Amino acid sequence: MATKKGMEVSIAAAEAVKQANVDVIAAYPITPQTHIVEHLAELVNNGELDAEFIPVESEHSAMSVCTGSSAAGARSFTCTSSQGLALMSEIVYITAPLRLPVVMLLANRTLSGPLSIWNDHSDVMSIRDCGWIQVFVENGQEVYDHVFIAYRVAEDRNCLLPFIVNLDGFILTHVIEPIEFLDQEIVDRYLPPYQPLYSLHPDHPVTIGAFSTPALYTETKKAQDEALKQAMPYLLKGWQEFGDLTGRYYHPIERYKTEGAKIILVTQGSLGETASIAIDDLREKGEPAGLVKIRLWRPFPVREFREAVKGAELVVVMDRAISYGASAGPLAMEIRAALYAEEDRPRVVNWIAGIAGRDVAPEDFVQMLQQGKERPGEGYEIYGVRE
Amino acid sequence: MAKQEHEISWKELNVGYVIDEPGNAATYRTGDWRSQRPVYNKDRCIRCGTCYVFCPDMAIKIIQDGYIEHDLYYCKGCGICAQECPTAAIAMKDEEE
C-alpha cells in the first residue's frame, strides 16, 4: 500500500524522479531548486538510482545535454529556476519542435533585476511560447505525482512533447509536507519504459535537428503548433489513469465552489490553497464566490475555462508576473482573449500580486474580490503597491 | 527525394522533422544560389587540380586526362576556383550575361 511520509517537497520530488527511473539527469544548482538536484546527485552517487548524473557547467549545457540524451532515447530530466531558465532558454525552444519528451521541474523564482531569489511566475512567463506542455501544481503531493504524469504524457507515442511542471520556489520547494508515496510496482505499471519513435543510433542513422529553408519552415511550425494543441487527449488520459491508480484526479482547470458562483477568482500555482480560504470566508458571508485554478497553462484549455466560469458576472484574475507595457498580466490577457468571442461574457478584472515573494494572505484575496467589483474590465493594477 | 520542399504539406513531415533518409542533402540544388557562373578555358588549364582542392562544395569534377568540369547543380558561384587558378583558366561571368 501507499505510505505517507513527512518530507521536504524538494526531496520528495527527487525521490519521484528516482522512482520514474530516469536515465540521464543534467542540471546546475540554483536557488530555490538546489535541494532537488543535490538529492538526485546523492541518489546516483549512492547507487540508489542507476542514471548518468552530468554535472554541467551551466543551464545552457544542462538543456543541451537533455535534448541530446533524449534524442538518443534516454529518459532525461532537468530542473531549474529563474536566471537558470533564462540561460537555458535558447535550447528550451529547440526541444519542443524536435518532439523530445524531456521533463523539467521549474522551481519558480522571479527574474532579476533587482536581484531576488523569491517566488513569482516571471521566469516561466518568459518562455511561455516555447512549445512545451506547461502545468502548475499547488502542493507537494501534486509535485510528486506530476513527475510520473509528466513522463507518462510526454513519452506517449502520439504526444511526444517536453513537459514543464511549475512549482512555486520556497513556498513548495522548502516546505515539509505529508506526502503519499507510491509503491514502485504502481509506478512501473503507470509508467512503462520509454520507447522512442526515432533515436540516434549508429545502426540506423537519422538526422535530428536539421536546417529548414523558408520553403518548409511554415509547415514545420504548423506541425509543432498542432502537436501541442493535440496533446490535450493524452493529458486527460494521463491524469485519468493516474487517478484510477491513486484516487487523486487532476484536471486542466480545477474548480472550487464554482457552483452558482457570480464572482470567480482565478489563480495559478500554490496560492490557490490560500485563495480557497478566502472563498470559504466569502461563502460563509453569503457571497456567491468561487475559485478557478489554472493547472494546464499550455496548451491553454480554452473550452474548459469557458465552461468553468459560465454564469459568472465578474472574473478576478491574479497574475504573478508583469508583462511590461502590455494590456494586462499574461494570465489575464489569455483569459480576456479566451472570453472575447463569448456572447455572454463576464467582466475580467486583473490584479498583479505576489511579486518576488510578497505575501498574499486570504484577506488580500478578499480585498481583490471586493475592490474588483468597482474596477473596470480592462487594464490591470498592482495589488498592495505603496504609492 | 519524392517531393520538392515547396510541395510538402505539414502533415507529411516526420515527427520532430527527423530525416530518416541519410545523405538526402545531395538532392538540394545549391546551384540556385548562384549569381555568377564559372567559365572554364581548357586551353589555359595545366591540370594542376588546385581548383578541385579549393572548391568548398565539391562542385568540380576531374574528368579524363586531369581536365575539370564544374557541376552547376551544386556550384554556388563563389569564385574561389577562379581566384586560385594559377593560369586564369577559370573566369566568373554574371548569370545574366
Could you characterize what this model shows?
The complex is a heterodimer of chains A (387) and B (97). Chain A has helices spanning 9-19, 34-45, 59-71, 82-95, 122-125, 140-154, 184-190, 214-229, 232-246, 271-284, 302-308, 330-340, 362-372; strands spanning 3-8, 24-26, 52-54, 76-80, 103-108, 133-136, 163-168, 176-181, 253-256, 263-267, 289-294, 296-298, 314-319, 347-352, 381-382. Chain A has 387 residues and is an alpha/beta fold. Chain A is globular, with a radius of gyration of 21 Å. Chain B has two helices and four strands; from the N terminus they run E-H-E-E-H-E. In chain B, the strands form two sheets. In chain B, strands 1-4 form a two-stranded antiparallel ribbon. In chain B, strands 2-3 form a two-stranded antiparallel sheet. In chain B, strand 2 (60-62) and strand 3 form a beta hairpin. The radius of gyration of chain B is 17 Å and the shape is elongated. The mean pLDDT of chain B is 93. Chain A binds chain B through residues 97-100, 160, 197-198, 205-208, 210, 212-213, 215-216, 218-220, 222-223, 226-227, and chain B through 5-6, 8-11, 13-20, 22.
Helix amount of chain B: 10-25%
- Total number of strands of chain A: 15
Largest sheet of chain B: 2 strands, antiparallel
What is the name of the CATH class of the largest domain in chain A? Alpha Beta
Shape of chain A: globular
List the strand order in the largest sheet of chain A: 3-2-4-5-7-6-12
The first-to-last residue Cα distance of chain B is 32 Å
